[in-house]
Amino acid sequence: EGLTAFHFARKLSQDDSEKWFQLGGKSLSCFKTWAMHSTWNWSNKLLLLEAEYHFSIGEMEKAEEKYYLAIKSARQHRFVHEEGLANELFFVFHASNGNAEEASYRISQARVCYERWGAFAIAERLNTS
Fold first, then answer.
1. pLDDT attached to residue 5
2. How far apart are CA 48 and CA 86, in angstroms?
């Protein structure tokens, strides 16, 4: 819900995006609470949501740092599918900022993660992106 909310907050007009920012903010609040109770399960998810939040409000350096940390946390906790998702969203971040080389690397990393997880259809979808 939070990732979707921040996606729409970036894509819609300022008037329409406010409700999506509020929804994303509620998700952030919940994730912070959950991460306090189970860092293992929730830290990478919280970091990814924070990355999307910072991306949505134009704080690109903070967003980039959070994407890196989300990927690192997902890898450390062996959430290969969430590592793939973090790389995929990091691809969107770099592509939207005109960094084609890093975007290409991130989408390839996402494919590797999804294939390792057994999600071959998702990996194939990324090949056609």
1. 95
2. 6
